[in-house]
Amino acid sequence: MKLNLSQRKLRKRIIKALEEQGFKINPHVRPAGYSKRTYKRIQQRARLEQIYYHKKFLRKYFNLAKLYSRDGKVIVPENIELELREVKSDSFEEFLFRWWNLIWWSIPYQRSYGRQMRFLLWDTKHNAPFGLICLQSPVLKMSVRDRSLGIPKDELDIWVNRSMNAQ
User: Fold this and answer.
1) Out of the domains of life, which is the source (predicted)?
2) Number of domains the chain contains
3) Do 69 and 104 contact (CB within 8 A), yes or no?
4) What is the pTM assigned to this prediction?
5) Residue 74 falls within a domain, yes or no?
6) What is the dihedral of CA 95, 101, 104, 106, to 10 degrees?
7) Which domain holds residue 81?
8) What is the pLDDT of residues 59-98, one digit of tens each?
């Protein structure tokens, strides 16, 4: 199949974008390596796009996040006391959870579908967030998981609805 000029330009732009993200193309698209650094590089562009997309939110809640941020030098590991705080809609915890979810992770933020339970792991001694926990509905169809667990296709929705993924 012969490509016209606009198709060739588009193909070249796509290949360049993939290579900039850390993929090799010859002839198949695959990561340039299999290290954690390579995967972070692949995710970096999407992560920066999400930060750009949510910049209004990030600016609005920057001072709130800063108020509860701690320099590592002031954290005394022996004094850390953690509590689990459920994140409820429009709560202080939700704003901090969203803010840190966008900034903390190297993987780009994506809104979850289905059931979701979010928690802040809070250091009460330092009055600061310590971690984020999210439980959510798993992907409905994942052939590797389904075969490994021996889940019959006609029971897939039952099994999936009885489980949650953690991140």
Assistant:
1) Bacteria
2) 1
3) no
4) 0.73
5) yes
6) -160
7) 32-136
8) 999 999 999 999 999 999 999 999 999 999 999 999 999 9
